[in-house]
Amino acid sequence: MVRMSRRRLALAGAGALLAAPAAAQQRQAPRSYVLTTATTGGTFYPVGVAIATLIRVRLQASQGLNLSAISSAGSTENVKLLRENQAQFAILTALVGQFAAAGTGPFQQDGPQRNLRGIMPLWYNISQVIVDRRLVTTGRIGDLANLQGRRYSMGARGSGLETMNLWMLPNLGIDHTRFDLVYQGYGPTAEGIQNGTIQGSNFDAGIPTGSVTQLMANAGDRVQFLEFNEDDIRRANGGTQLLSAFVIPANTYPNQPRPVNTVRLPNYLACNAAVPEDDVYQITRAIFENLPFLNNIHAATREISLQDSLGGYPFPLHPGAIRFYRERGMNVPAALIPS
Hints:
Layout: H1 4-10, H2 12-19, H3 22-27, E1 31-36, H4 44-63, E2 65-70, H5 75-83, E3 89-93, H6 94-102, E4 116-126, E5 129-132, E6 151-153, H7 160-171, E7 180-182, H8 186-195, E8 200-202, H9 210-219, E9 223-225, H10 230-237, E10 244-248, E11 260-272, H11 277-289, H12 291-295, H13 319-327
Helix pairs in contact: 4-11, 8-9, 11-13
């Protein structure tokens, strides 16, 4: 992960851009922004790199716009980076976005994050709970309770996965404080499960997830996915509708001959409200008009859909995104329009 001190030096230009008056911004070219993602072993980072590559290819020469993707701990840290203008764009899970907009959960002390604006849904994170096969009794998510005293990776500190675990596990009645907790990204976690130093984790990411592919190829006979039934999903949601049923198709991974019943959670491309309207408009348009370009880089981008672009945001849309959707004849709900 890039150290904050290095970010501050590298992103000084982007910070100055948002601090400048609007008229001055229009005279400045190029305009460079930062998109913060997550650790490199999941889906956020490669999708972020794909989007940044698209913007450079399509908009740098014609519009003077440049976007750079950086790694981070994940969604929870991304909210902080947006707030501090260390980044201007971010990929966020719906759960972290909901907490941030309301000023609850990990943002209780900071209060509602009123600078957040939505651009579009990207793809769904798929819960891929994998544990040492010797600890499986029913094959369902409740078997996580069998990891008492064993090592479980919560995800990197400040990540969306850590927030997801802290929310979902208590909803399921699973006391994670009785685990021997590890805080690592997807790659090191997969290696730990493979070599036996970690007994389980949730690889909450788009599929196929590179670190899970590696794990299943090297240790598929020694590990097992845990599944969710309808009652598990109801309890995991804790009174919300954030999680929905999803089936991982058979043979998505090596040594996975049958489908896996699990849950999914949406992710969003978001930005700081201070980014100029036209820049967000140009980026939004470039993404939707060049989906085949993104699809060829990462399979998760195949879930980006104009038809589904106005649903489920926990915060308002950015005016630049609203402008694009209205140009496409879409009726933007009043709840998504900033006050």
